Amino acid sequence: MTSTADQTLRQLGLTIFLPAAVWATGLGAVAPVIVLTATGLGASPATAALVAGMLGLGQISGSLPAGVLISRVGERNTMMAASVLAVPALLACMLAPNVLLMGAAVALLGVCGSAWMLARLAYMTEAVRPELRARAMSTLGGVNRIGTFTGPFLGAGAMHFGGLRAAYLVAVAGVAVATLILFLLPPVPHDRAIPPGTERPGLWTVIRTHQRTLRTLGIAVLLVGALRASRQTILPLWGVSLGLDPATIGLIYGLSGGIDMLLFYPAGKLMDVYGRRAAAVPAMALLGLAHLLLPLAGGPIALTAVALLMGVGNGLSAGLVMTLGADASPRVGRAEFLGAWRLCSDVGVGSGPLLIGAVTAAASLTAAALTVGGAGLLSATLLQRWIKPQL
């Protein structure tokens, strides 16, 4: 990377990457625990998968409103609001007396996460030059993967001393620290609302104008979201089916996140230098293959091997959705378009765990793994077709 690129990414460090890393670390602590908490409340594996899917449903419902909110009040104010709502959502997950209330709290947490990430994406799309875009986006994706890596270890340590509920306290602390960082740091240059009186297109006008992109490449991105969310749900469920204890499941999950952490920058450079396809297609093919191999994992060692393969696929896709969205976004109505773009991904995030729950209830967890694996191969095919070769 050139010195100019180094300087650009360094300038984004405190304002963009640091709060995102802290936020992701906090939520990473509870990512594998949501399913375990639901089963502890008496939910079956299928119902527990549905509860985990509420995170994606919350993201779905929050994507479009977040895009409109960002265009009106700015990305920093949007993130502050999301942080304020995330704390009670986490406490409700921790203290929920039944599965229904927990599902509602998980959905609210998804709304907050959607607003937070969309605000980061909207700023970086404008702030970073196109030739450095994938590296910047993959770095943002990478700091989230760092959170995915460190969060479960922190959560596992907390659970060792305080049980499942202690992991939620780690998440609350992470959200609080990220909010404090946002409050103390000066606003970034693009962190502002559109001045009053400025003409801007409505949300539905933006969607109609770019409907072809959303119904082609957007479908492929939907499948990307499904694969990523399925990985987060099916690994803990498979560990439960093997009789592994929560700390061991959290450890395996964290090791998978470690691979993500190592690959985020190479993935971005690969996309900047060789095009978006160079990382997108292998990433989805590997994630699909890992799901297809999951039924062969009959113990902790085999499950760890599959989890590491999932980590490789997920790591290669670091920043992929954000980069493709930034490439396709218009100058006018950018936040609204990115909200619709995130909706495509978030529909996948929500449908992945729901698909696992539905197939598990109708057939088995093995059938669910094979179904998601097939979706991964389909995603690789669609990305190969719809990503423009010059990107």
Map the helices and strands.
Elements: H1 3-30, H2 33-40, H3 45-73, H4 75-95, H5 99-127, H6 133-162, H7 164-184, H8 203-209, H9 211-241, H10 246-274, H11 277-293, H12 300-316, H13 320-328, H14 334-362, H15 365-386
Helix pairs in contact: 1-6, 1-7, 2-3, 3-4, 3-5, 3-9, 3-14, 4-5, 4-7, 5-13, 5-14, 6-7, 6-10, 6-13, 9-10, 9-11, 9-12, 9-14, 9-15, 10-11, 10-12, 11-12, 11-15, 13-14, 14-15
Transmembrane segments: 12-36, 48-70, 77-97, 167-185, 279-297, 303-325, 362-383
Protein name: MFS transporter
Pfam families: MFS_1
What are the key terms here?
single chain, 391 residues, mainly alpha, Growth Hormone, Chain: A, 15 helices, 0% strand, globular, disordered N terminus, MFS transporter, membrane, transmembrane helix
Describe the structure.
The protein has 15 helices and no strands. With 391 residues, it is mainly alpha-helical. The chain has one domain (3-187, 201-386): Growth Hormone, Chain: A (Up-down Bundle). The chain is globular and about 55 Å long. The two termini are 18 Å apart. Mean pLDDT is 85; it is low at 1-7.
